[in-house]
């Protein structure tokens, strides 16, 4: 674990976040360090925006993208204390209309 990710893990513990959050954020940040090939504090916001615009990244679930964005937001806000200017459009949550019983179904239930 590099120094930056260790600082994130320490800050998460200090702030009382859950161990699951700690594991999720640090593992994601470790993968991103390997992806970019250098420490994340050297990665520009322009590079992060380009990463999130890749079709392969856009195909992952809404929750995965949110986790990735939140881990970067936590990193930039609490460790180097730099503003993070991401221009990422999050997928809208797909809502399905509720299922209602038809009048025939209600009549069958009553009888």
Here the CATH topology of the domain at 3-78 equals DNA polymerase, domain 1
Shape: elongated
- CATH first level of the domain at 3-78: Mainly Alpha
User: Low-confidence runs (pLDDT<50, min 5 residues)?
Assistant: none
Alpha-beta classification: mainly alpha
Radius of gyration: 20 Å
The biggest sheet, with number of strands, parallel, antiparallel or mixed sense and barrel status, is: none
What count of helical segments does DSSP give? 6
Q: Superfamily at the CATH H level of the domain at 3-78?
A: Tyrosine recombinase, N-terminal domain
Oligomer type: single chain
CATH architecture name of the domain at 3-78: Orthogonal Bundle
Strand content: under 5%
Helix content estimate:
55-70%
Record field, number of beta strands: 0
Nearest-integer average pLDDT: 84
Tell me the series of helices and strands, N- to C-terminal.
Answer: HHHHHH
Ends apart, CA distance between termini: 66 Å
Description:
- With 111 residues, the protein is mainly alpha-helical.
- It has a domain at 3-78: DNA polymerase, domain 1, CATH 1.10.150.
- Helix content is 60%, strand content 0%.
- The protein has helices spanning 3-14, 19-36, 45-52, 55-58, 62-78, 103-110.
- Helix 1 (3-14) packs antiparallel against helix 2 (19-36) and helix 2 (19-36) packs across helix 5.
- It is elongated, with a radius of gyration of 20 Å.
- The protein starts with a helix and ends with a helix.
- The model has no long low-confidence stretch (mean pLDDT 84).
């Amino acid at each position: 674990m590099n120094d930056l990710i260790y600082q994130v893990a320490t800050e998460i513990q200090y702030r009382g976040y859950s161990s699951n959050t700690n594991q999720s954020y640090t593992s994601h940040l470790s993968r991103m360090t390997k992806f970019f090939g250098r420490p994340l504090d050297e990665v520009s916001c322009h590079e992060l925006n380009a990463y999130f615009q890749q079709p392969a990244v856009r195909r992952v679930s809404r929750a995965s993208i949110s986790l990735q964005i939140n881990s970067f937001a936590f990193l930039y806000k609490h460790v180097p204390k730099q503003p993070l200017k991401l221009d990422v459009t999050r997928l809208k949550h797909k809502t399905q209309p509720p299922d209602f019983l038809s009048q025939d179904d209600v009549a069958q239930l009553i009888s």
